[in-house]
Amino acid sequence: MSSDALKIIPLGGLGEIGRNMMVLEYGNDIIVIDAGVSFVGPEFPGIDFAIPDISYLIENKAKIRAILITHGHEDHIGALPYVLSELDVPVYSSRLTHGLIAVKLREFGILKESRLNVVEPHTPFTTGNFRVEFFRVCHSIPDAMGIAITTSLGTIVHTGDFKIDHTPVDGKSTDFTSLAQIIAEGALLLLSDSTYAEMEGYTESEQVVGDALERIIGNARGRVMVATFASLISRVQQVINAAVKHGRKVSLIGRSMTNNINMALKMGYLTAPNGTIIGIKEALSLPQGEIVIVATGSQGEPTSALVRIANGEHKDINVVPGDTVILSSSPIPGNETVVAETIDNLFRQGAEVVYSRIALVHVHGHASKEELKMMLNLINPQFFVPIHGEYRHLVAHASIAESMGVSDLNTFVLEDGDVLEIGPYDGSIVDRVRSGKVLVAGRRRLLKPDDKLVKEQRELGKTGVVVVSVMLDAKSGDVLRPVNIIGSGILDVAQGKILENASKVATKSLEKNRNKGLELTDLKSKVTASVSDYFYSETKRRPTILTLIEHI
Amino acid sequence: MSSDALKIIPLGGLGEIGRNMMVLEYGNDIIVIDAGVSFVGPEFPGIDFAIPDISYLIENKAKIRAILITHGHEDHIGALPYVLSELDVPVYSSRLTHGLIAVKLREFGILKESRLNVVEPHTPFTTGNFRVEFFRVCHSIPDAMGIAITTSLGTIVHTGDFKIDHTPVDGKSTDFTSLAQIIAEGALLLLSDSTYAEMEGYTESEQVVGDALERIIGNARGRVMVATFASLISRVQQVINAAVKHGRKVSLIGRSMTNNINMALKMGYLTAPNGTIIGIKEALSLPQGEIVIVATGSQGEPTSALVRIANGEHKDINVVPGDTVILSSSPIPGNETVVAETIDNLFRQGAEVVYSRIALVHVHGHASKEELKMMLNLINPQFFVPIHGEYRHLVAHASIAESMGVSDLNTFVLEDGDVLEIGPYDGSIVDRVRSGKVLVAGRRRLLKPDDKLVKEQRELGKTGVVVVSVMLDAKSGDVLRPVNIIGSGILDVAQGKILENASKVATKSLEKNRNKGLELTDLKSKVTASVSDYFYSETKRRPTILTLIEHI
Hints:
Two copies of one chain form a homodimer.
Chain A: E1 6-10, E2 22-26, E3 29-33, E4 49-52, H1 55-59, E5 64-68, H2 74-77, H3 80-84, E6 91-93, H4 95-107, E7 116-118, E8 125-127, E9 130-136, E10 145-151, E11 154-158, H5 176-182, E12 189-193, H6 206-219, E13 224-227, H7 233-245, E14 249-253, H8 255-267, E15 277-278, H9 280-285, E16 291-295, H10 305-310, E17 324-327, H11 336-348, E18 352-355, H12 369-379, E19 383-387, H13 391-403, E20 418-422, E21 427-432, E22 437-441, E23 445-447, H14 452-463, E24 465-472, E25 484-488, H15 498-513, H16 520-539, E26 544-551
Parallel strand pairs in A: 3-5, 5-6, 6-7, 11-12, 12-19, 13-16, 13-17, 14-15, 14-16, 17-18, 24-26
Antiparallel strand pairs in A: 1-2, 1-20, 2-3, 4-22, 8-9, 9-10, 10-11, 20-21, 22-23, 24-25
């Protein structure tokens, strides 16, 4: 690897390449863009979420100049507490993003020692041999930024998550003018959001959602509940606007919703006339036609307010006829089933339920094909790297770039850990560094997906466990009593004699092997194998077998 | 309950009400419509699928006159082997459906004793006090039927799964003429497919898929692989047609695909010029531009041919540049993530991948809103029960019926197990019978979802297991050696002294309780509780704890 070349390394995108973390390296300097978490499915029971494996950054600690954050969503900031406990590096972000990061670091008790910096858009600063300039983009959270990074090789544009919305809720559109000025001398490289590269046309403006919310809230006779993400601050603004227009008060439920919204109100990212936002007790004392309740739970999270309401288990709120529930969100991949169940249960409770499949109550925050073309057209980069998407999204985005005249020799579909080296004239993937996911179980317990413990746990859930307890005479090696067998989670135990027979199988194996002068561990393996084979022959599954041998 | 009224009981729809089984009861006679399986998610590890709980049918065995099957998909026929082993009842179905049922019953070794009957559409027969007439509908499998059932109270129309396709692959449209004749004197009740009641407009014809497949296969330079359901026989016909047109041979891989297609060819439901369908070895010896491979795996099933190909693990087939892979299907809810991974991996292997999100290579087999209106309009029923959908789909369908003038007093959104009683003038839900799912683990192992074993297994996967092995002196009750603790699947064991400390906690609990004259089971509970509390205080999780106490 040439140390003069620019290196681009997506790290721990965890399925979505580069989304949670991107590394740029030039000479002796490294900057990191974003530090987010990703969610893991039910295939990892007991795991809360995953963060990127930052081994590469730890090895190159001395080179890291800054962590730049594009916006305040969990998949871009959620890993910061873990990353900052390993790396003492300044963090740069916009103002609202800074507020969200501060809330998080305070929870972890590391706010004080962290070096957080607020950056205004269009206000360049220098770190190492990078000149960094944030520019405003539209996304489903206010104060989202793309980043232009200039080196002596040229300018790199990282779009962050973006869409082009000419009528956003906060009135702040993607700032193409600033961007055009920044790259007036041409762009070396574009790294651009690929999440919706499969979607034809344009992503609809947030305005259509505002219109729909206003219509639905205006027509509702009874209470209205709106479920959305706690981070979708613009959406909450739209709900507030609609509520105010129709003479309703707004009440927030759910801890993360309340924290985020109060912070956004305090910082001026949300506005509401005095007295609009009230506590839930007060709200429940008002006539039903005068309130809107905003809650989390739009992803069917089992402990969320909405799901408890849907199951009739919420302490304060029961669905009553005349209630309208709006799910202003769409299911994150993997959550489709639980969201559908939540909708079904709300209907069962008697609510009128409005959701994205039947009404325009949600638009997503990412650019569709025509917007991606617009970005490619404006930046007109020499090199192109699609980021922020699963592999097929990157492939789709690469083919959009090709249709816009970017040479396919200069377009690189990367995997996490790939090291792309770009020189003045060409680029190539020259290396692969350690990357991937680190699983977080409980706040600070970090595990690798191939860790023995993680595998054990997954296996247990599939097959159950059998405990084989053996007692041998310490002198003679005689089997002192029938081998004791206990099973848990063995679906076949109901079938009767399986445990009893397994005890016989184990005893037989002991009798056969006990006088062969085997080490204890070897004897244990023999017994374990015999029991495992017996279970397999009976049930076509191999439960986890724990064998205890005692000599007394 | 009046014994003269007509009873409608959806049984074991397992989320989708009535899809897997519907019961009609009139006087002393019962007929059952369909007997299918439903799939269970990763929340039930080790479970293959679910079948309806037929306790109600077993209790009323003597009344059951017939099982009528609408079409040959698994969610309508898959439970037959289990149901027929409990109930000796004749089964009536169309010819192709009969072929698929026979394959299944033969596998279970119960074909000979089963009483299967082939019914031609528009050929009524009588069973008990029901007059039964099948009528042809379009669905994503040939020979799909709706059923008109006439009693002295009036005629009940059950649509089965249907859509209205004026250009279906087999040329056989939904037979409205026959249907209009059957209900010439009016219809008492319509039971109609609600799967796509949320979708505006019309479901597109299979023809658009045929056109897309023909274009993609025509343009491909290298090999083409098409993945679809083994039961989507019409889709395979379209692939064969396109292959023949472009001078390609077709090879089938996957056992279920090969069995179904060979059966359909033999029965004349699929046609292919002689020599078109060849073995995979022969296919792989031909030039790449001359073959189309049809495989299962469109749902990302881990052991399917397509997934093994995508992972580079198939024994015969590697992806090579120039390959085109078409996923002619859309993910079943819950499979979205695995299907997406399969697509990503095929791209990684270098294939061109075409899937329903980016091209019209799949249409679904169910009617959208305008088609549902057409059915309601034609049948113009006195009573309406939406079926075959999750609760929200039924609600959506009910509101379509209301918009078509069906009184909401005469429309019933049922849950599984609800007993709807319909008299000449009105209907009401009068009772609720036992219903729900029975889980199938391995071919013949039946469990209820709330079975202790099922709960144990799910719990194990979430929390892991701890074995506590205690040895006490039989006489004195003294603790003979340090309590032995083994853990498996405990994510926190990596954190060091947890097992060691748990042993101390258990020993302390023993010392404290051993001289209180407790029964062995009570002593065991005390020790177990102390260890459980210790783990909870350390890890905020309660693993499954298995305690063994030996007196020696």
